[in-house]
Amino acid sequence: MPESLTNLLADSFDAVSGAQAAIIAILAAVTMRRYGSIVWFSVFAIIVDQFVTIALSREWDTTGDVLSQVFESITELNPTVVITRFIGFLVLITIFYGIKALFRK
After folding, report:
1. What is the model's pLDDT at position 11?
2. Which residues of 34-55 are buried (b: 16+ CB within 10 A; e: fewer)?
3. Model confidence band, residue 105 (pLDDT cutoffs 50, 70, 90)
4. What is the domain partition of the chain in residue ranges?
5. How many Cβ atoms sit within 10 Å of the Cβ of residue 80?
6. DSSP letter at 78?
7. Is 3 helix (H, G, I), strand (E, B) or coil?
8. Which element (helix H / strand E) includes 57?
9. Residue 31: in which H helix or E strand, if any?
10. N or C: which end of the chain has fewer CB within 10 A?
11. Are 20 and 52 in contact (CB under 8 A)?
12. What DSSP character marks residue 60?
């Protein structure tokens, strides 16, 4: 468990620092209509991130295998890892949503 808030934020950024997470966060920010749904988009981003990671590793034979592996891998994650990823996606989606809001009419 992170020792302080700054360590938690640093760990959160490390958890979502790849191009894959950035693309997922950009897509979430673009499709999000109002900021009040940020929690649901962050949770969904974690699921999509796991799905893409498993799909890219090609450890599956059918679509059912991918879905079962995604939910199995999420339930097996350490709660601290899930919370860290959630905060990371929350911050990342917020940043991209803010950039989107700057260019709105």
Report:
1. 72
2. eeeebeebbeebbebbbbeebe
3. low
4. 5-102
5. 12
6. -
7. coil
8. helix 38-57
9. helix 19-31
10. C
11. yes
12. -
